[in-house]
Amino acid sequence: MTSYQLCLAAHPYYLRCIKLWMPPAVLLASLPQPLPQAVNHIVHLLEKGHTDEAEQVLAAAAKLLRQTGADDLATALQALAALYKNDFSAAGHLAAQASTARPDCAEYHYLRGIIVAQKRDVPACVEACQRALELDPAQGLAAAALALIYTLNRQWPEALTAARQANAHRTFNFYLLDLCLLAATSRLGLPNEGPFDLSALGDTKNDLAAELNWLPTVHWPKIKPAALTIFVYCDFSYLLEHAAPLVWSLAAVKARDVHIHLHIANPHFNTPDVIEQLHAKSGLALSWSLECVNETRYGNLRVYHSAARFCRFTQFLRHIEAPALMLDADVLFHQAPDKLAVIHDAATELALQYSATNPLWETCTGAGVFARPTTMVKNYLETVSLFIMRNLQHGYRGWFLDQIALSMAYEKWIDRLKFTVLPHTISADQSFSDDAVIWAVGIEKNNDDKYNAYKRDLFARYGDLRPMAKVEPEPFNQLVTSRFGPMLVNKNDMYIGAQIAEHGIWAADELAVLKEFVRTGDTVIDVGANVGMHTLAFASWVIEDGEVHSFEPQREIYRLLATNVALNAWPQVHCYMQAVGSASGTIAVPAVDYTTRNNFGALSLRTDAPVHNEITVDRNRSENVPQVTLDSLALTQCRLIKIDAEGMELDILHGAQNMLKNLRPILYVEFHTSRASLFAFLKKFDFRIYHHDSPGNPTILALPAELTFVTSLPEQ
Questions:
Q1: Which of 297, 548, 569, 598 is a good FRET partner for 275, with 20 to 30 A between their CA atoms?
Q2: Segment among 41-55, 194-208, 330-344, 549-563 with least mean pLDDT
């Protein structure tokens, strides 16, 4: 029997990552609407940590599922909910019930595997995942779980096989799979099969200065000579919460001949005041530098900060002549820095926190790096920086990029540099022993422990600078990168905004169908354009010779739509803050709170619309906006009309009868009205109707009968 001691010795975080689950697609497809949408919504809420809300939806959905004979799915969802509440006993019992009721369901066996993984029963997790793959070789999540376990356990052939299988059936976002592929191919001496660019590890001469131009410009100050310079990279919130007490801790241990350099990303307007207070109250030599990071260009800022700090440290070493120590911002000095032995060992060029038993991406951890600014050290760190920059440029947005770079460059440079290991127990101690020089905090930063007690004491002794943030209402819009260009989206949007922010696209399946029909020079109408995902796609397809007319009645969402069109410079797009209906006039748009989490695309303008549990509206407060008919556009051609108007579909089509009769556009309609009434109306105008439902959204494609275009969609 295989021993999984190496896997169990790894950080508990990794086994906790085996938690993604997708409900059985075949079973979902057999359920009547809106149950599939409800099931997917429950899973989404649990993954986002909204367990109370998920249980409320589950209570209603479970009854309906049992009424339709899907008792096992209801039980599986209850098991998943129990898992996310850390009730592993109940979760295991419920998952066993589901898999017993439907033993041929791979997803239920994988669910058992998820649960036992949280209980750190690795053999049982492996058995459950293997069973899931026997039933369904395309069960990518089960293969990914095995890849992670085998990688942590250093079973490289098995890890590579599982990682390849998971990658071949990848419909999920699990960045650890990329790390498993990299580790397995590296350890087996095979070419890399993951998304990483390894070119920086080659022997060719690299031009770091030229490539650093990709990063935001930084102006470095002159640094006063000191026995040791401590370099800390953080954003403004981390400066107040963590870096400030780090500075206070150096004052508390009476650090001598030490210079502190703070590199601050995306500073607040009163950053200079914070720096002045730190200097005045600590009495320590202190310098600082700034950079402004655009999330659209550089992606997830937390990932960027964690990796780019090494690029900045590499640059910083060019400006000093004495040794430097780069530290995480969330550490505290328990003793003076001169207690670190490496500072006094002139033969040590570079000191890292290193463990050969850790996974590849944690062989060298990024919590602390000691460097003497020799040519060889600078060359090593240039390799690390180039690795990081090239992978960020190529779109890699996963964690541990910094530690992968450190570890793989370490293996390349091990014979050329005098490396020394920085013991974790001395330089980044998470057990907070009295012998440690530096105390470090882990993932959980607010535990009731010695670290936080020390931190509170430092705040009380030297001052708490956190109020200097002068917290203002946080903007609820964010700039992200979509597949059709930069877009501004609402961070509180549960679906459209969230999907664009995370994946760069919304309704990819719809766009794939519609692209078959839209040609250069066409005129397209987008009713219910929301923030403009479809609009930008249409604009890129019709280009300057065509036209796109986009309607969005919610003022705040319309602003995003117009902004996104302007950001992408599409002059052929016409945006209207108008509703579309059967007659011209005005219509009331209910008030929505855009600062809280909502499904803004679910807003209906119908006063008789059923209450939607994913959006909170106040119909007592509303704004009257113009309502127009599509016929009033008086277009001479129209290739396609896309309608997503939450129950207004028939009204919109009644106001477009001349267009339907004379221009014969293709229609793509999500509908929340009577199927019979809609189909009867379209048949009257001689349209062929095809079914193209997405989860929870009944949708049709209607083609003029005379159009000879062939589609694979099922005809109604």
A1: 297
A2: 194-208
Q: Round to whole Å and give the CA distance between 572 and 521.
A: 10
Token pair belonging to 570? 């599409």
pLDDT tens column, 67-97: 888 999 999 999 999 999 999 999 999 999 9
Helix/strand/coil for 621: strand
Q: Are 255 and 223 in contact (CB under 8 A)?
A: no
Q: Tell how far CA 585 is from the center of its chain.
A: 42
Are 245 and 216 spatial neighbours (Cβ–Cβ below 8 Å)?
no
- In this predicted model, what pLDDT tens digit does every residue of 173-183 receive, in sequence order? 778 899 999 99
Helices 156-168 & 140-152 angle (0-180, nearest 10): 160
> Two tokens at 139?
């069960």
pLDDT digits (tens, 9 = 90+) for 182-232: 999 999 999 988 889 888 887 656 667 777 778 888 888 888 888 899 999
Establish whether the linkage from the previous residue to 272 is cis, with ω within 30° of 0. no
| The length of the chain, given as a count of residues | 716
Instruction: Give the other-Cβ count within 10 Å of 335's Cβ.
Output: 17
Residue 422 pLDDT level (bands cut at 50, 70, 90): confident
Sign of CA dihedral 29, 35, 41, 43: negative
Would you say 328 and 368 are in contact if contact means Cβ atoms under 8 Å apart?
A: yes
Tokens standing for residue 299: 């992606």
Q: Can you give the pLDDT at residue 216?
A: 86
| pLDDT at residue 107 greater than cutoff 60 | yes
Here the tokens at position 638 are 């129209």
Q: In sequence order, what are the beta bridge partners of 264?
A: 234, 290
CA–CA separation, 486 vs 500, rounded Å?
10
**What is d(CA 478, CA 30) in angstroms, rounded to the nearest whole number?**
38
Q: Which pLDDT score, from 0 to 100, does residue 649 have?
A: 93
User: Are the C-beta atoms of residues 646 and 672 closer than 8 Å to each other?
Assistant: yes
CA separation for the pair 646, 486 (Å, rounded): 27
CB 601 within 8 A of CB 609: no
- Rounded to whole angstroms, the Cα distance separating 224 from 285 reads 8
Specify which residues 474 forms β-bridges with.
none
In our burial notation (b when 16+ CB lie closer than 10 A, e otherwise), range 632-654 reads ebebeebbbbbbbbbebbbbbbb
Q: State the Cα–Cα distance between residues 143 and 503, nearest whole angstrom.
A: 22
**Could you tell me which of 479, 482, 501, 475 has the C-alpha nearest to residue 595?**
475
Give the H/E segment covering residue 503: helix 496-503
- How far is 340 from 333, CA to CA, in rounded Å? 11
Report the alpha-carbon angle 446-448-450, nearest 5.
105
d(CA 445, CA 430): 11
